Amino acid sequence: MPFLLYSVVYVLIAFGQFRYPVLLLRVLPLLLIATPFAAHREFPLWLDIYHALLGFGITAGILVLTVAILVAAGKHLGVPSVELVVTQLLLVALPEEAFFRGYLQQSFGRGSRSVVLGSVLFWGAHLPAYFVTGDAAVLLVFFPSLVMGWLYDRTGNILPGIIFHGCANTLWLSIR
């Protein structure tokens, strides 16, 4: 049910059907974070150096390669604002990882099957944006989702995925 709500709300915001989308965009993250709690599950986030370093290490490895490819393709990277970084980490990455990894993927168990199923649902929730905006990059969301799912499957902690997710979003939004 929360997955369907997430997708419907995302489409309605994109089509401008909410009078106060900023308010909704602040409520939706809380709903996504609340879902694991409502399902009486342990919230799979704890802060520790090992998982933070793992998240930053995977992020650096993948995103440095991504930046090199983008620069070679003639793209320019802007310097993201602190507000953009904080928004992507706290209002996008944290809630989406809590819901898609900490709730949905956790529901499927462990292993590659759960990573793929969680990533398909993550991709499906973002797919309506393609039809609204026409941005073909949305179709590629599945691939970083596999990385975030793998990180959760390996660690049982959403922290490394939050770091990767927030940094990937910030990078993508900084491309000019």
What is the secondary structure topology, with strand pairs?
Layout lengths: L1 H13 L6 H18 L10 H24 L9 H26 L4 H22 L8 H14 L3 H15 L3
Helix pairs in contact: 1-2, 1-5, 2-4, 3-7, 4-5, 4-7, 5-6, 6-7
How do you describe this structure in short?
Helices cover 75% and strands 0% of the residues. It has 176 residues and is mainly α.
Task: Write structural notes for this entry.
The protein has 176 residues and is mainly alpha-helical. The chain has one domain (2-173). 75% of the residues lie in helices and 0% in strands. The chain is built from 7 helices and no strands. Helix 4 crosses helix 7 (159-173). The longest helix has 26 residues, at 82-107. The radius of gyration is 16 Å and the shape is globular. The protein starts with a helix and ends with a helix. The mean pLDDT is 86.
Number of domains: 1
**Count of alpha and pi helical runs:** 7
Anisotropy-based shape: globular
Whole-Å distance between the termini? 37 Å
Mind telling me the C-alpha Rg? 16 Å
Largest sheet: none
Regarding quaternary structure, what we see is single chain
**Strand proportion:** under 5%
Give the rounded overall mean pLDDT: 86
Helical residues, percent? over 70%
H and E string:
HHHHHHH
Q: Which class best fits the helix and strand makeup?
A: mainly alpha
Number of strands: 0
Low-confidence spans: pLDDT under 50, at least 5 residues? none
